[in-house]
Amino acid sequence: MKRLCLICILIAAAIPAFAGVTVTSPTNGATVSTTVQYAATATTTTCSKGVASMGIYVDNVLLYVVNGTSLGTSLTISPGSHQTVVEEWDYCGGATYTKLAITVVAQSGVWVTSPAVNASVTSPISYVATASTSTCSKGVASMGVYVDNVLKQVVNGASMNTTLSLPAGTYDTVVEEWDFCGGAAYTHVPITVVGAANASAKSLTQLQASKGWTGYGEFPPVYAICTSCGPGVTWSMAQNVASPSMSGKATKFSIGGTTPYADVLWTNPVIGAYSTQGLPDTGRTLVPNLHNFTYDVYFYGTNLELSQVLEFDINQYFNGMGFTFGNQCRIAGGHGWDIWDNVNKHWVSTGVACNPVDNAWNHVTIQVQRTSDNELLYQTITLNGVTASINRAVPHYSVASSWYGITVNYQMDGNSKQSPYSVFVDNLNLTYW
Known about the structure:
Layout: E1 20-25, E2 31-32, E3 35-43, E4 51-58, E5 61-67, E6 70-76, E7 80-90, E8 95-104, E9 109-114, E10 119-121, E11 125-132, E12 140-147, E13 150-156, E14 159-164, E15 169-179, E16 184-193, E17 202-204, E18 214-218, E19 225-226, E20 234-241, E21 250-256, E22 263-272, E23 292-300, E24 309-318, E25 321-330, E26 336-341, E27 346-353, E28 362-370, E29 375-383, E30 386-395, E31 397-398, E32 405-413, E33 421-432
Parallel strand pairs: 2-8, 10-16
Antiparallel strand pairs: 1-3, 3-6, 4-5, 4-7, 7-8, 9-11, 11-14, 12-13, 12-15, 15-16, 17-33, 18-19, 18-22, 20-21, 21-33, 22-32, 23-28, 23-33, 24-25, 24-32, 25-26, 25-31, 26-27, 28-29, 29-30
């Protein structure tokens, strides 16, 4: 399989046609718990250098600052009515902001900031919520989402930031918390999913715990794959890790070695040839008719700044055509999202910041599409509840081999010192239609 190079040419992103701060959580006028989840993005049309940083004020006191064009964080705020402001500062000295009035309450319960009650939404649906309990001194153990009385998602802890893919229709969804003392509380969130694009969507779930993963080393500058790579690059993976874990079956991926900027690619053939999911598609009727894909994953690291890049890919091959939907989060490499140009074989900067958080579960959702004329359309990237619209198309490439199928990839890149580090991956799902 053709692989991606690490040393890349970054192409400046097009300047957006609007500017300002867009806050998706909390909403203005919302009543929330004392743990308030903020998610926002920012753009500017007045400064060609772009947005430098973003921050959150609570009652005129600056409580949080992050570099880049997006933020996703939780703040502990005392009960009462508060005026909060999410502000962006650009590299030219300018700034814009959005005001949000919120009411914080100390009582126990479940507080859902997304989606809104009776909202019309598109799939996948973002669920952002927090929970607290006054009856259990041990606190909240976990939270979950029910759809029409069927439990669809569970996360550990007193906060939730996840997505669900649902076909068009009206649903009674419930966000529930369970505490360590056996108690529970919940909030009903009826929603209507609009649009029929996902009506036939199917999902492969918990792929991190699946059989069939193969690891390969890659050395600069060519980055061809190797299996016996010597001490230059080393790797390991351990499945069914209970802690840290959201599902109880996380996978620990680790990289090390002695060659700077060496990488490790893990790949799993999920549909078509050598399918690990019972989908060999021997009649070759499934793979050519799949056009839409959602890569949904959580990852956790204690020292993510040691990572040059974390990469999340979907590959589709049929009829001599190759489609590598490559998406990489540069961390030590510059805190930005890049997409892969199949034909010119280099990375293209999206201009979207990528700032994952240490010692927390980071949630990534990537939506892509193979268009009717066989181009690769990069649609959206969502990190920790903040969605960025990419909307860029690149051509496919020709494949000399007869490989036929779809693979899911996960890759970790070494930094300038090839510092060893590990990342835990959980709830890795692929939705396709």
